[in-house]
Amino acid sequence: MTSARHMHTEFKGAEMWNPNTPLSEDCLYLNVWSPRFNKTQPQNMALAPVLVWIYGGGFSAGTSSLDIYDGRILSKSEGAVVVSMNYRLGPLGFLSLPNNKNVRGNAGLLDQRLALQWVANNIASFGGDPTKVTLFGESAGSASVGFHLLSPDSHSLFQRAVMQSGSPNAPWASVSQTEAWQRSTKLAKLLGCPTSDPAYLEVCLQKAQPEKITAKQYDVLMQPSVLGLPFVPVVDGDFLREKVEVLLSTGKLPKKDLLLGLNKDEGTYFLLYGVPGFSLTQSLITRNEFLHGVNLTMTNENYVTREAAIFQYTDWTDENSKMGNRDSLGTLVGDGLFVCPLLEFAHRYSQHGGKTLLYLFDHRSSINPWPEWMGVMHGYEIEFVFGMPLNVSLGYTKNEVNMTKKFMKHWANFARTGNPDIDGAKWPVFTPEQQEYVTLNYNHPEVRAMMKAKECHLWNKLIPKMEKVSG
């Protein structure tokens, strides 16, 4: 999710996420996979449900052309139309200039909406049902799905939503207009554009080479952090009419079915990229390195709040254990940046929005090339959603082949009916009172409750109160 992804450029686990096509401003294309053009399917078949994919990458990197996002297996296996889109990224997609009506921010989100409008107008020609469109995305793509749920002008363009490991209320997912303006102005200065004349500033930035713009984008960040994303969605008064927290509490959410969930070890991936002391071969960290990692994660919180998190995530019977410090920091990063924001979104949406269903994915792929300690990492459910284990040349196990078939059926059934049940197993509706969810792996789905209840009370309730009290 950061430029530091290129630290491991020769490593297969990193390379699979790096763009496999040239950087270009001419990027607004979409891909369509349709069973209608499968010769084994009758041409008069009923219109199929449509699954529209939004990729992640921290709003700064990514492309729909990655091999892992190939929609042909999902489309063929489930008789669904699968669509993926590109959208503008980094400053090209999320620049917001002061008092400028032309460059207000959120161009990348508007690109996504434009793709959804294209789907609404044209997908029937590809055998897709425009009244059964399900958005699904992962990480920043999942946050994007959430932003469309929060933006009324998107509501008529889809009926259901799937959010995988990301939410719009996460601390990395949006910035205030003031912060967006400050970052954009700093980028302009780095590119040699004078900032005193708003009209000329826009012209100067338009003339700048996109390679230079993207190369300088991380220099606008004021301090290092585990997940530093320089150009992200902004509260612009249009696409996002209020702060996300306000939108989630107003009771004006759409009554659309929502399936959302997490992976067991959301935080470990980011330790390798954002915390000193971590590498592909080194992960055992000292107590001081753990504390430094906390500071890099909680960059906007004060000292008292950080101490509360340190208290929660320390094994006080063995606080100097290097393995314990590593595992605790991975859990803290995952909970603070992904797990607890998404669970708070689930709480709010289940109260004010539509039917809400929650999952936890807890299977580590047998061909995962990353170190074993990283567990079930951020992003590593995607291969099962898109059916990659059905490619026999990749060497997945028989259990994983069966599991990916179940995954695809869950997602496709949800797109068809709003109900992801398969094989008679009932998926409980998430409510704030019961907080039930389903575990997804190669075993029979298991119903559990109260995911991370204690930890998320800290992040979602206690820390905000402490920030207010301690200033």
UniProtKB/TrEMBL annotation:
Keywords: Disulfide bond, Glycoprotein, Hydrolase, Phosphoprotein, Secreted, Serine esterase. It is found in: Secreted. The active site is at 139 (acyl-ester intermediate), 266 (charge relay system), 378 (charge relay system). It catalyses: an acylcholine + H2O = a carboxylate + choline + H(+). Gene3D superfamilies: alpha/beta hydrolase (3.40.50.1820). It holds the Pfam family COesterase. One of its GO terms (cellular component) is plasma membrane. It comes from the Eukaryota. GO terms for molecular function: acetylcholinesterase activity. Its EC number is 3.1.1.-. Residues 18-459 form the Carboxylesterase type B domain. Belongs to the type-B carboxylesterase/lipase family. Homotetramer; disulfide-linked. Dimer of dimers. PANTHER family: ACETYLCHOLINESTERASE, CHOLINESTERASE. Esterase with broad substrate specificity. Contributes to the inactivation of the neurotransmitter acetylcholine. Can degrade neurotoxic organophosphate esters. This is Carboxylic ester hydrolase. It comes from Collichthys lucidus (Big head croaker).
